[in-house]
Amino acid sequence: MKKICILSIIIIFALTTKAQFLINENFSSGLPTGWTNTALQGTQSWTFKSSPAFDTESDGQYVVFDDFTLGAGTTPNEASLETNSFNCTGRTQVNLKFHHYWQAVEFTHGYVEVWDGTTWNEVADYETTTQGSLISPVIETIDITAHAAGNSDVKVRFRYTDGGQYGRYWYIDDVKIYSDPDVGVTQLVAPVQLVCGNSYTATENVTVRIFNYGFNDITGVPVSCDVTGAATYNLTGTYVGTITAESYIDYTFTTQIDMTTEGWYNFVSYTTLGSDTYSTNNSNNTTYSTNVASFPYNETFTTKAGWYAGAENQWEYGTYTKMGGNTGWVTTLSGDYSNNADWYLYSPIFDLADDHIRLSNLKVSVLLKMVQIG
C-alpha cells in the first residue's frame, strides 16, 4: 500500500525577544517622533549632539541643555524635553531609567516629571549635587509607579531651569521606561509541528520557553500548560533556577502527554509569577494537529483545528460579525502590502493511504495574494 503525505512547508523566522519597553530612546535620529522640545524661558531648547563624547551604552548621540555656552548674560533659561504619550494600562509597576550628567550650580534645577493624565508630578530634582561626568555618567532608575501604573495617558519630561543664574549643563541619554519584574512564555518548544513520515507518540514531552523581559534576574518562576482538543491535560511546574535579565530558559514539564489520538491539540502555556507587573505578555497559544487519516474531511473551525498561518501572516483566527458571529479564519487586511506578498493559510497534514491515489507536488493551502495598486 502506497502512503502519500501532503505537507505544507513553513519558513520560520527566528526573532530575538528583548525587554518590552514603553519608551526606549537613544536619540540616534535627533528628536524622537512624538516628543516635544520646548523653550519655556529664553530661546534655547535642548540640543541633540555627539560631541563632546558622552560615554553611554548607545551610539554616541545624546541630548543636552548647555546653559554654560549661552553665557552669563543670557538668563533666565528654561526648557522641557517631553516624551510621547504611552499606555500603562494593565501594568502594576513602571520604571524610568536613563543615563545622565548633571553639573550642579546653586539655584539651577533639573526636574524629572511624570504626567498622570491630569497633572505633572515631580519625581526627581537635581540641584546642588553634581551627578556623574562625561566619561562616567550616572545610571538613574526611578520608580514612577505611583503616577503611571494603570494609566492610559502617561508622559515623562526633563525640565531644565537656571533660576536666573549662570548655569552649566544637563546631558541625558538612553531613556527607557518599562515594567519589572516581567516574565512570560514566548514559545512552545516541544512538541513541534509534524512533517511527512512522522507522527506523535504516547510519551510526548512538553517544553516551553520562559523569557525574562526585565532588567533584573528572576528566580523560581511557576509555569503551566493547558492542553485541550483530542486530549486534556493541565501541566504545572516551577523553574527553580535563575533566569537572567533579558534572556530565556526552556522548561520541560515532568508529565508527558499522549498525542496518538487523531485530532487537534491546543497548548495554552503561561507563567504565574505572583510579583509579575505585566500579565498581558505571560502566555503563548499554539495549535498542532495529528496527521489527518479519516475521510471525508470537513472542518467548520470551531477551533483552529491544526490550521495555521505562515510567518508574519495577515490571516487571523477569531469570531467575526461578518460570519454571523461564528469562528473562522479571516484576513486582517491591515499592514504594508507594497511588496506584493503572498500570505498563506496552511492545513494540517493529510495522510492518504490508498493504492489508487496518485498525487505529485501537491500543497494544501489557502493563498491570499495582495497586489499594491497605485
Salient structural properties:
374 residues; Jelly Rolls; 2 domains; six-stranded antiparallel β-sheet
In short:
By secondary structure, this protein is mostly beta strands. It folds into two domains: 3-17 and 181-369, Sandwich (Immunoglobulin-like); 23-178, Jelly Rolls (Sandwich), CATH 2.60.120.200.
Outline the structure in words:
By secondary structure, this protein is mostly beta strands. The chain has 2 domains: 3-17 and 181-369, Immunoglobulins (Immunoglobulin-like, Sandwich); 23-178, Jelly Rolls (Sandwich), CATH 2.60.120. Helix content is 2%, strand content 41%. It contains 2 helices and 25 strands. The protein has helices spanning 67-70, 145-148; strands at residues 3-6, 23-25, 36-41, 47-49, 62-66, 78-82, 95-102, 109-115, 120-126, 138-143, 155-161, 169-178, 183-190, 207-212, 218-229, 233-243, 248-252, 264-271, 283-289, 308-309, 315-319, 327-331, 342-346, 350-353, 365-369. The longest helix has 4 residues, at 67-70. The protein is elongated. The model is unreliable at 1-17, 355-363 and 367-374 (pLDDT under 50).
**In the CATH scheme, what's the topology name of the largest domain?**
Immunoglobulin-like
CATH class of the largest domain: Mainly Beta
Classify the secondary structure makeup into a structural class.
mainly beta
| Distance N to C terminus | 54 Å
Please provide the count of β strands: 25
Which sequence of SSEs, written as H and E, runs from N to C? Answer: EEEEEHEEEEEHEEEEEEEEEEEEEEE
Largest sheet: 6 strands, antiparallel
Rg (CA only):
27 Å
* Structural shape: elongated
Contiguous low-pLDDT stretches (5 residues minimum) are 1-17, 355-363, 367-374
Strand content: 35-45%
Return the CATH architecture of the largest domain: Sandwich
Question: What's the CATH H-level homologous superfamily of the largest domain?
Answer: Immunoglobulins
Helix fraction, binned, reads under 10%
- The figure for the number of domains is 2
Count of helical regions: 2
Average pLDDT level: 85
